[in-house]
Every structure is written in structure tokens, then in C-alpha cells.
Amino acid sequence: MATYHIETYGCTSNRGESRAIERALRDGGHRPADGPEEADVAILNSCTVVEKTERNMLRRAEELAEETAELVVTGCMALAQGEEFREAGIDAEVLHWDEVPEHVLNGECPTHTPDTEPILDGVIGILPIARGCMSNCSYCITKFATGRVDSPSIEENVEKARALVHAGAKEIRVTGQDTGVYGWDTGDRKLPELLDRICAIDGEFRVRLGMANPGGIHGIHEELADVFARNEKLYDFIHAPVQSGSDDVLADMRRQHRVDKFREVVAALDDRLDHWTLSTDFIVGFPTENEADHEASMDLLSEVRPEKINVTRFSKRPGTDAAEMKGLGGTVKKERSKAMSELKMEVVGEAYESMVGDEFEALVVEEGTGDSVKCRDSAYRQIIVQSATDRGVEVGDFLTVEVTGHNTVYAFGEPTGERQRPGGSRSSAAGSSQP
């Protein structure tokens, strides 16, 4: 997206989340618009205190959907009552606030600050392992800011990871514009070794691998699948953005992969892992996408059934080659986006519904809305535990959770048995107040 408009309602927490969203968008080269009519995307950070507020949020979302090219709804009402927007027929993407920048970036690689230093946010450690990418996608403006990949040594990244663990990190997020090409600039495909070395650090923590383009990891995908299989600390999760199910469109996008390479990456992980999460992205309405290309994307989504899917309408980015192409009409893009988003909700809902009734080992990674906490199982699927204080559950705990229900894009769970506290202490599922 070239421009954005953001509106924030509710508490100080919502305002802080909006500031974080804006920082990420500005880092990615995006700029604020004068209003929703001039914006490529409008972001509504919603509140849900009382029924009147909910009605106001629905009315404002409906207005924004008419005023702007694309609407994203986040915030408390999106998390607690996201289905209300869909039932009202509002054409919007309903997302958790920390998913908004990734969605708005139109399939572009994420951008990090020039020093790419690690950051500790609560119990989450952010570890940028490299800066830049090896791609030349026709729609992406990020490459102008980041350049070609520059990979620090394995030893340097491992020391940064070790420092994060010693500082209290329970989850290390390995990030980069394209983690799959880490080491390409030195002539060595080093990602599998780096992940092994990080997982070998002493301590109780989990590791999440960030975005890796299929073209970047193809060629090491078998080795990488083995790394996932042998490291319990590594979340069985991979974000591999395919962007289209059509080889013709992928060629016009100048992506480094074709659909078969993507399928081979997925097959390698399917072969090694029983319970894992595939996250992928689709760009809908690329200028050269015809109806058959769109159907190919829909068919691919139905075939591989990713548990996490980001659907983005194509938007021209100034200075890119794709900006010079004759675009599709807004109505066509909106209809295709709606069709894919509906299929997305079906596929994701099916994945979370399949978890109901089973128990999973999970890490509590951050606080949620109200007195809830967000947990991640071994495949990085989100499980919400409510009434966390009464249950004695705290951020940083490792616990066993029985999934009791789901809300399409995340599950609800009840803690069972004992859980391990940061520092090694234990607490019962009945809550810390019990004698």
C-alpha cells in the first residue's frame, strides 16, 4: 500500500497499538493519507466497551468500507466479536493488531532498522538475523530501502540469541526480509545450522522462524524440514508466502519460485511433521491476473489448506515496475478478495475446530484482552486462556492446555495439570492461590 488512514477508539492500550502499527508502516515506506478517501487502506482500531460502542464501530466500519479502497478492522471488537463485521456484510479484513502491518505491506518483505539489533518485548525476543533480500519482485518497494542481503555470522547471531535468553526471552522470533536466504551473500546456505545452534542454547524457550520466501528455502527445504523434526524448541511453523497459484502471474511478479517449488516445500514438512502450521500470503488482483489465474490461487489454497492465510488486494507502489502496468478495476479486486477471504475463513476455522477436545503443550507469550492470555502450541497456533488471574496463569508459563472451543482464527483452552514457571517453579492448574 502507498498510503494509509488509521482511526483509533477506546483506551490507552489501543492508542499504543495504533502507534506500533504506524511505526511499522512508516518503516516499510508507507505514508499517512489526508483522510480515508485518499488512502489505499483504512485501519479501524475498534473498541467494544458497551453495546452502543459496538453499534458505533459497525456503523463507522460500514462508512469506511465505502470511503476507501480496503478496510482492516483490529482492536478489541475485532478480537472479541469479529464475526459481527462479517454478519453485517462489511467488506473488511478482521485481524489482530500485530498482524496488521504484515497485511498492509502488500506482500512486501518486512523492513527492519539499519542496525538490526535484537529487541526484548516482554518475554518475546526479536532477533533480526540479516538485512536485505535476494529478490526483485516487480511490486515491492522495500528492496529500494534494504538492498541485497547482508548476513552477520552464525556466531554473532547465536550470541545475540543467547543474550535474549539470558535477559528473560521465552520466545525468540528469528526475523529478516527473507530468512531463507540467510548466508547467500557469503555463498553458504546457513539457515539450518543457525537454527540448530540457537536451539542448542541452554534454557527453556521456543524459537519461531520468520518469513521465508519459497524460492529462498527451496533447495534447503529437505534439510530445513529435518531441523524442525529434531528440535523441540523450534515451533513447527513456517511462513512461506506463495502470493499466487498461477505460474504466469508469479513470473510477472518476478517471484523466484513457481507453484511446484512451493508444493515441494510443503510436502517436505508434511513428510517430517505430524502437527505443523503453514502460513502463506496471496496477492489478489495483480494487474495481469485473469479469472483462470484467480481460480488457480483458489484451488491452491483449497489444496494445501494453510492454517494462517494473509489475503491482500494488489495496490500500486510508486517506483515499482508493477505500478506501470494497467491495473484491474476495483470491483474485480474486491470480488476476488471477498471470495478468497471467505475460503480463508473456512480453511482456518477447520484447522482450529480440529483442535477441540485435544491437549497441547503451550507457552504463554503475552497478555490478551481483559484477563486473558495468549498461548502458542508447538505449531504456533494461538490458544486463548481466559480468567488467567484466577487460574494462576502468567506470561512466560509453559503449560498443558485442553482446547475447549474456537473462534475461527484462534482456539480457547483450559489449563490442566501443572505448569512450569519462569525460573523453574511450578503452579497447579487450580491457581496460585491454592495452598
Task: Give me the side-by-side strand order of the main sheet.
Answer: 2-1-3-4-5
Class by alpha and beta content: alpha/beta
CATH architecture type of the largest domain: Alpha-Beta Horseshoe
CATH class of the largest domain: Alpha Beta
Annotation, overall tally of beta strands:
18
CATH topology value of the largest domain: pyruvate-formate lyase- activating enzyme
Query: So, the CATH homologous superfamily of the largest domain?
Result: tm_1862 like domain
Bin the helical content.
25-40%
Q: What gap, in angstroms, lies between the N and C termini? A: 55 Å
Strand content: 15-25%
Domain TRAM: 353-417
Region (Disordered): 411-435
Keywords: 4Fe-4S, Iron, Iron-sulfur, Metal-binding, S-adenosyl-L-methionine, Transferase, tRNA processing
Function: Catalyzes the methylthiolation of N6-threonylcarbamoyladenosine (t(6)A), leading to the formation of 2-methylthio-N6-threonylcarbamoyladenosine (ms(2)t(6)A) at position 37 in tRNAs that read codons beginning with adenine.
In short:
This protein has about 425 residues and is of the alpha/beta class. It has 14 helices and 18 strands.
